[in-house]
Amino acid sequence: MLYLKTGLNVCRCCFTEKSLWRRGLSTTENLSRTNLAHQKILSHIPHAQKGAVFLSQFLYCPAAFIRRGGVRGLFGGGRGNIRQQTLEDIAENIRERKFKRIVVMAGAGISTPSGIPDFRSPGSGLYDNLQQYNLPYAEAIFEINYFHHNPNPFFALAKELYPGNYQPNLTHYFIRLLHDKGQLLRMYTQNIDGLERMAGIPPKMLVEAHGTFATATCTVCRRDYKGEELRNDIMEGTIPKCPTCKGIIKPDIVFFGEELPQQFFTYLTDFPIADLLIVMGTSLEVEPFASLAGAMRGSVSRLLINRDLVGPFAWGSQRHNDVAELGDVVSGVKKLVELLGWKQELEALMNVGGDKTSVNNQEE
After folding, report:
1. 3-state secondary structure of 357
2. Phi/psi of residue 347, each to 5°?
3. How far is Cα 304 from Cα 329, in angstroms, rounded to an integer?
4. What does DSSP say about strands 249-253 and 211-218: parallel, antiparallel, or unpaired?
5. CA 65 to chain CA centroid, nearest Å
6. How far apart are CA 49 and CA 39, in angstroms?
7. Which end of the chain, N or C, is surrounded by fewer C-beta atoms within 10 Å?
8. 172 is an active site residue
9. Residue 221 annotated as binding?
């Protein structure tokens, strides 16, 4: 898989032998398999076939893809002399249904208000608190070669992160409300906590870029399992084993060294037709997910609700239709909800979903 924390100049030619070895990657094996999946997707998308070579570069080096114009080079876009958009403009266009095909990109920052620690925050992030598992380095817990060597650390962490231990918050229910109103085209999430599903967002509306606990696969015979079939073993601290071949059953979380989920390539059909991109709660440091934010057509509005400027909002030239609402993610979503006039609807949805907390009292 290509989920690597990279700079903007990374391509497959830049991978060092050490990096490949540590992550179990092979330029001849993993990249060719990814390319095969890519070609399968392109074969069903006539308008993208002629750009197959250009788009395939995105899979290997997202930064190079953006530098060469991203999907704007294929699907058009442009910019006129228009005033800088504001959050109020975004809200008005959502409310008046001028935005009907909204893509949401989200990371760990939308789940931390539910009590789930993120991965990279100094001191409090998961990667800084894994010493108890005696790992050679923090990322090893999500590397497939290390998992085959020692699955215990991952399953100990899985017990903490398993869906059901935490509840969705206002942010998840806002995205659910977009879906209920028929304006959500797709949600692309880096999270593996399952809170999007718990909030009622249908799986078909989700691209779980880093995988999911909802399904699992035997690492030996490849038999499929439902995630709930593993719950008892995981909660009891037992490694789940396949009754057929006694192999380890691994939740379908995407590890370093594994292929991208095939559903990730849905971006090839979603991004050309989207009319608004909302990015929230992510550092945009993990590729190729991170570069999706720069792959939207230039004419499409982009809204960032985040603690900091990230990705193209930080290093790209500012677009007139880019809006950044910086600070606490829940506070930013609350502000957007109030501008939309959806506060009562959102509270009703949260109450039905089991969250009895008022929108005004959501943790900030």
Report:
1. coil
2. -60, -40
3. 10
4. antiparallel
5. 19
6. 9
7. C
8. no
9. yes
Annotated ligand binding at 11? The verdict is: no
- Reading the chain (364 residues) residue by residue, the pLDDT tens digits are 333 333 333 333 333 333 333 344 333 333 333 344 444 444 444 434 333 333 444 444 444 444 444 444 333 444 446 789 999 999 999 999 999 999 999 999 999 999 887 665 555 456 555 666 778 887 888 899 999 999 999 998 888 888 888 899 999 999 999 999 999 999 999 999 999 999 999 999 999 999 999 999 999 999 999 999 999 999 999 999 999 999 999 999 999 888 889 999 999 999 999 999 999 999 998 888 998 988 889 999 999 999 999 999 998 777 899 999 999 999 999 999 999 999 999 999 999 875 544 455 444 3
Alpha-carbon span 47 to 102, nearest angstrom:
21
The two three-digit tokens of residue 339, written as one number: 């501008």
pTM, 2 dp? 0.76
At residue 158's C-alpha, the angle toward residues 155 and 163, to 5°, is: 150
Given the residues 47, 172, 210, 320, the one annotated as active site: 210
Cα–Cα–Cα angle for 184, 108, 147, rounded to 5 degrees: 115
Residue 218 labeled ligand binder: yes
| Residue carrying the six token digits 């304006």 | 183
27-49 in b/e form (b: 16+ CB < 10 A) is eeebbeebeebbeebbeeeeebe
The residues near 131 (Cβ < 8 Å, ≥ 6 apart) are: none
Residue 77 falls in which region: left (phi positive, over 0), alpha (psi -120 to 50) or beta: left
Is 61 assigned to a binding site?
A: no
What string of DSSP letters covers 88-142? HHHHHHHHTTS--SEEEEE-GGGTGGGT---SSSTTTSGGGG-GGGT-SSGGGGG
The amino acid that residue 304 corresponds to is L
